[in-house]
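Hi D.,

Good news: the full-assembly prediction came through. Inputs first.
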Amino acid sequence: MKAAIIVFPGSNCDRDIAVSLKKISEIEPLMIWHKETSIPDCDIVVVPGGFSFGDYLRCGSMAANSPIMLDVINKAKKGMPTIGICNGFQILTETGLLPGTLIKNDCLSFLCKTVSIKVENSNTKFSNLYSKSEVIDIPIAHNEGNFFADDDTLNKIKDNDQIVFKYCNNSGKTEKEFNPNGSIENIAGIINKDGNVLGMMPHPERATCQLSQLNDGEKFFNSIAESIL
Amino acid sequence: MTLITEDLVEEHGINKEEYSFILKSLKREPSITELGIFSAMWSEHCSYKSSKFWLKQLPTENNNVIQGPGENAGVIDIGDGYAAIFKMESHNHPSFIEPYQGAATGVGGILRDVFTMGARPVALLNSLRFGDTSHEKTKHLLTGVVSGIGGYGNCMGIPTVGGEVEFNSSYNDNILVNAMCVGIAKTDKIFYSKASGVGNSVVYVGSKTGRDGIHGATMASAEFDENSEEKRPTVQVGDPFSEKLLLEACLELMKMDVIIAIQDMGAAGLTSSAVEMAGKGELGIELDLDKVPCREKNMSAYEIMLSESQERMLMIIEPKKEHIAKEVFDKWELDFSVIGKLTNTNKMVINHERMKKAEIVLDILEKGAPSYKRPYSINKYSEEKINNEKLIDKDPISILKDLIGSPNLCSRKWVWEQYDHMVMTDTILIPGGDSAIIRVHGTNKGLSITSDSTPRYCLSDPIEGGKQAVAEAWRNLIAVGSRPIAITDCMNFGNPEKEEIMGQFAGVVKGMIMSCNELDFPVVSGNVSLYNETNGKGINPTPVIGGVGVINNLDIFADHNFKRKDDIIIIIGKTDGHLSQSIYATELLNINTGLPPKVNLAEEKKNGLTIKSLIESSLVDTSHDVSDGGILIALTEMAIKNNIGFEIETDKSNSHRFLFGEDQGRYIVSIKEKNLIKVKKILEENNVIYTIAGVTIDKIIKVNEEKIHIDMIKEIYENWFTRYLSE
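Then the structure:
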């Protein structure tokens, strides 16, 4: 199995996700420079975190227009499993593969900490080894992670069960006070309607025991390994 | 032609004697470009003219040191073919004028110092000092500096894993922003700045040159006055995105056999990098400034030579390999330009617009640079005991509440949560402890890293303060179970032309030398920032020490958080209850007189090495050094993270001295009860003084009869910054 990891100038979680995919999912990571025009034969596409193009103009907007993205969009529309983490999530919303957008944190500053998130949908390729409503601890690190969508879009997201992760406290309560960045409905991660494109702000690759004691991200990578077998 | 007047020379920070040396050496009047070059190279910042005499005396070698001071950064061998490359540098003056950009470019500069040597940066730390919390500028400076540091490091994808923040009125008009970077390289793939090979190409890579930061080095070498804010245009503007590209491009090229020498363009820009590279190689250098990529039109030779635009590097490459390098920089869309060549003339020749703008023998700039043994007088306070009647009439828990919620002892979480401290996924110990631990990627080996200083100790007794700064860094590394290897220092002082300030510098260095020697903990790199004065008032002497240690097996280390109930709490080291210069005395009693606690280096070493062996033999997994605030503060810091409290008994007639004294060379450990006999035996065999102080319990902090729930303490401890900034 192979994963294509798209590398933009300014990506900085590309190596981290490659290490986790290899170590946990036993998937061979292929690093693909953004100027390529086609994705090689692979089983999953990963748009990693970082500061593509320095977050200049608007987070993810320039990366969304890199040459490789035409093929990423094309293959995703044909069902290729695709994940965007952090800046990758921002990029995927910019391409239109995922609904909504990510705006500045309501605390108005960058925030790096381990937070609790609740698995709202465990019927996806990326979350099927978690149980529904399971509370997991995963780090976040972002300045623009505040998910926003207009009412219509939000209703559709909810109707289609597209919310995968929500910020919560350690007992699974999803009140506003447990929301680190102001995201609408505490949304931390969503999936597209077809169920093959996931975007999330938390970094599961930082919770695979590479950092001491954090291993709640392992099921994420194992879910991927099982579902794309 | 610009006329070189006396005023112009003075504006360039060159004094009369220095100028007459220039006239004698050149045998003519300098051009304006040459004057600018002398000004930058002979500034305090670049020439270390006031500090060199003292710095030369610091120990710089041990079995692990590969490269000591004199390169872009220091290099130590950490085993298995790996080297750690590190340095700390100040960006004080710019950060006061423009906090976001000043701090950001401070981070950018120190990163380049490390990756220019072939290392991938793996950790950033920063020591920050601001004025009194009631000073009108403090909030603005604090928020600006913290977001500037985060803005740069986060974008680069390098974790910021530690540091310190202090508030003190001596920094009201001169804040300190000291940034440290640690990188890792293979020992056989280290790059140096010494140029070689007459005829080889001098290559400029990175961002374009603009008019920003002209004379930054000179600004950093002068006192401030009320007009300092007018210097804002001399502050550089950072572009972390370009630096990230520069990092990746340099590391990519370094894998190929192309670069002969490389140096970043930091303070004094193209001038210092060209002079230093050619000077080290004992060669000459000829530059054609028309080839320098410029951001603005009509830049003069003077401006190009003195610009401190960021994210630029100078490399020496064989002409036949230029195309290989160009291809890499083209990929990363960075400027690449051959701007000159190495010569055998020992001269620096600058051409611009078909005219020779400068021609200086390099020896005049480097070996001819002034070096002063300035008059000094090492003054320390007189001894003064704090009598019992002066102590506060409150119980220890009430005092704990006051102290743990005070600006200098409260949690720094608000700061470090704005820094990405986990990217690269090798952060084993996150900020908030004694040292951060970073795994050497792909191995089970770790680096422990810390930065520390206690300026009030240095002010009251420079020699003891210097000793203490080094000893505390060593202690922080020991507390996590690592082997301390070497340090970098960032020496922040006032105006060295004053005997008293020069005495502070000399005293601190003398103290540092004692600790470095005794603890086998040499200095491998560093930076000096003098003239931290405004309207004649200097900062507290602040030698910030950045320490690096090694853990060979990451399965075994310690951190400061209590892990279990019913552990036995042991204080290692002798507690005399020294209150003078403690936080208790200075912040609660407002007593600033008296001498700081003494560091007994023999005890220090014995206690530390014993702690290290206890951790290595898995008898201790929880350890914390006792520093600012004393025992009760240290215990509380150990309790908060995992909600495990403690119960201790003290001699009530002496409890304040025992709980809040700042005697040196001490640690607190907590151990499983079943290991008590073994631990006691080891402590006794090593003649280590210890006190069994109490036990860990559930969620309550209890001192004699008084107690408080951890949640209440946590609320006070963790929310000071938010409350302060929303006021």
